[in-house]
Amino acid sequence: MYLADSWDFVRNNLNTCPNAMSLQAFSPSLNATVIRALPCNQWSCRWCIRIKKGRIIRKVTDARPNRLLTLTVDPKLYSDPRDAFDQTRRQLPRLFTTLRKTYDSIEYFRVVEVTRAGWPHYHCCVRSGYLPHFQVKAAWEQLTGATIVDLRQIKRTSQAITYVTKYLHKLSNIPWTARHMSYSRKFFHKDPEKPPADHDYKNIHVVKAHPVNCITLDRHVTHFEPLKNGWVKLTDTYDRGF
Ligand SMILES: [Zn+2]
What we know:
The protein is of the alpha+beta class. It has two domains: 4-41 and 202-235, no CATH class; 66-183, Alpha-Beta Plaits, CATH 3.30.70.1910. The protein is 33% helix and 25% strand. Strand 2 (21-27) and strand 3 form a beta hairpin. It is elongated. It binds zinc ion.
């Protein structure tokens, strides 16, 4: 337990995004107020994006993709990049539906990337059996008119991590869409059932203030204890008979 006499200390220990709000509750067993940060989770937030990318990389790696597929669009066929995205984005699931008719069990995770000129193209991590390049190319061309399709095998999991990391790091805040990613229904393995929460918190509610402000606004001096479950226990000094 620490005496939060320095706000720098509080800030460092409540290390979260600058736009976070707070979740506040009361723990009868601890007889104390507990708070937790609620990060904003926006693509435009540098702090949140770092966490989000790490999580996605882990999940995609666990899904063991064995192919990498790049699908382009033909800029000549659209009035602007957004139009190209709107028109081709929906063709992507159709492509996989078409391919599944011949080659069963194909699952994918895709991210959109924009070229220097602003045009979208798609990178997909694919998990499938035998899948010939010419068939994928023919199907994509029929759906979108685009002829440039790249399909290669991922030999090792580490290779998949490298690709996914590269694409996610290039993923900028594309102004015309928030649909940076999508995936087929069975791409990700189901999460094992979550263990029950090990707390008895009552009156859990959202406070529209950053966790740091929750402490600084309400309290003069606070005992501040990070708990193992990600929450922080607060104890006002006047509660404790100082
Ligand atoms: Zn954030």
